[in-house]
Specification:
Blueprint: H1 22-30, H2 38-58, H3 67-99, H4 107-145, H5 151-179, H6 184-209
Helix pairs in contact: 2-3, 2-4, 2-5, 3-4, 4-5, 4-6, 5-6
Length: about 210
């Protein structure tokens, strides 16, 4: 769990997203507030997918000798993804704060601040994409080699992780284009989209082959 805290509209520190009831977090997403937004939702989605992977690994103890190691790796991915939900919200707030700076008397300083904020706002969803692709890959493996009774869960994990990776990559693109940032960020995001898509394809194929 992260030590960061969400900020209310008044700027006061409030309860961490991860310490809130699920319904309250969903209400926050739907509220007329700039954050949590798409990046936080993508991060939480990856965390949920990792949770499914961890569960499937634990139920695959008799089939996979390294099931415990796979479960621990999934737990680590889940924690990292969950922390990024608030990091994304903080990064977005920093962008809004930079954009609110007056253009005069120092427009160059303002541009630098905006670009710096957009750089961070691109890097956080890229991290989400990295983790999401890892989760999708582990889900595909468990769909193939893990407990067949959990195949629906592992296929779900792969598919929702892929969707979150695609979402995160789109956020990278938005920030890169807005800040005229290094396009290596886009290329990296695209690599993770392709990896997640391939993992989801493999998981789905296993699921279809298992149908009676």
């Amino acid at each position: 769990m992260t030590g960061r805290r969400a900020r209310s509209a008044t700027g006061a520190r409030d309860t961490s997203y991860l310490e809130r009831p699920l319904g309250q977090f969903l209400d926050l997403v739907a509220s007329k507030e700039p954050a949590p937004g798409g990046g936080a939702v993508a991060a939480v989605t990856v965390a949920l997918a990792a949770g499914l992977v961890g569960m499937a690994a634990r139920f695959s103890e008799g089939r996979l000798p390294e099931s415990e190691r796979l479960a621990e790796a999934a737990d680590n991915l889940r924690r990292r993804a969950a922390m990024l939900a608030e990091e994304d919200a903080e990064a977005y707030r920093a962008v809004l704060a930079a954009l609110a700076l007056p253009r005069e008397p120092d427009p160059e300083s303002r541009r630098a601040r905006v670009r710096e904020a957009l750089q961070q706002a691109a890097e956080v969803p890229l991290c989400i994409a990295v983790i999401g692709a890892e989760v999708a890959e582990r889900a595909a493996r468990l769909a193939d080699e893990g407990n067949p009774n959990l195949r629906g869960d592992t296929v779900t994990a792969a598919l929702v992780a892929e969707a979150a990776v695609r979402s995160a990559a789109e956020l990278v693109r938005v920030n890169v284009e807005m800040g005229k940032l290094d396009e290596d960020l886009l290329r990296a995001a695209d690599r993770h989209v392709r990896a997640a898509a391939e993992a989801a394809r493999r998981a789905g194929a296993v699921g279809r082959e298992a149908e009676p």
